[in-house]
Hints:
By secondary structure, the chain is of the alpha+beta class. The protein folds into three domains: 10-240, Rossmann fold, CATH 3.40.50; 251-294, SH3 type barrels (Roll), CATH 2.30.30.140; 305-349, SH3 type barrels, CATH 2.30.30. It contains six helices and 21 strands. It has helices spanning 40-50, 68-80, 122-132, 149-155, 180-189, 205-220; strands at residues 13-19, 58-62, 87-93, 96-99, 104-107, 120-121, 137-143, 162-167, 202-204, 225-229, 237-240, 251-257, 260-270, 273-278, 284-288, 292-294, 305-310, 313-323, 326-331, 340-342, 347-349. The protein has a six-stranded mixed sheet with strand order 2-1-3-7-8-10, sandwiched between helices. α1 (40-50) runs parallel beside α5 (180-189) and α2 (68-80) packs parallel to α3 (122-132). The protein is globular. The relative contact order is 0.10.
Amino acid sequence: MSIHLAEWSPETTRVFVVGLLEWEDPEIWAPFPDAVPGRFDAKLVQFFKSQGVPESQIVYLQDSEATLEAIQESLVEFLEDSDEEELLILYFAGHGDWDSETNEYYFANYDAAEDYEGYWSVSSIIDDIEENFSGSHVLLMADCCYSGGLIDALKERDLSFAYACVTSAYSHNSSTGEWTFTEALMKGLQGDPVVDLDGDGWITLYDFARYAELEMAFIEEQKSMFLTLNDFDPQMQLAKVTKRGTPGGEKRVEVEYDGTWYKAKILEQKGNQARVFYIVDRSEEWVDSDRIRPYEPETFSKGKAVQVEFEEEWYPATVKRGWYGLHFVGYDGYDETWDEWVGSDRIQPA
């Protein structure tokens, strides 16, 4: 069964949100104080409430509420209350971790210490859903380091439900402390035309995933990931375009300022001038067109020998894929466990 907006109703949707910007031990898990004002995890919850999802079908654990015990007990109880044909949306924001020795992925609950046994494991999330959910479709989203571990874990399982997953980063990559990914999600859910990449008047899950991929690559130089399994329709309609604007018309460019070129978006054009939004400081300015050039990041070809920075050391590597200024690399002499996507500041010709 494929879910479309015409069939979707808030009454048959369950939303489980865990958002952390601070932890019990800040020396282990650094807090994100700059992300607290206008936090997008709270905005996401408020959006679903405004759409009519019953409060009994929403769980939101924020910061100190999100201990491992509270998360696990709440999730199981929440899933046990589900009914047939329901859609489960599970979202996490905070710190993520990856144990390279076991290839296990974790989300850092509020009381996470140094022992992986006290972390909220990605595998346990899937276990709990498979064992306790009675619905039909599951949408998983995460905005954190190593969030792509959700996708890797799903690929390894024999699953009972239709799953979709969108993450801010590849499974072997860290992520920034910004809200770029979740802000892209909110734009999609609210019907912003910039997310409507095919211009058909509807924002689908696929539209959002591709828009998030472009945003994360352009702004954060991270590779957002997307997967659907078991007939989860990637064209599931999230929202009808509700705002005026050019569908999919967001232009990502570079703008010259004081002799330096900065990433920016064109918000509006009038004659020979454009109103631009600078990524670096989120400021706006009207500029002449001769100060604008297309964003065309250098991209190395497949098989190119390069050097890649990892923990302040440079290692020989080979490009396996290049896209939009990002490169998927394999480290020479190391197995595929260490393959990752890297941004422009971490790669150079051999």
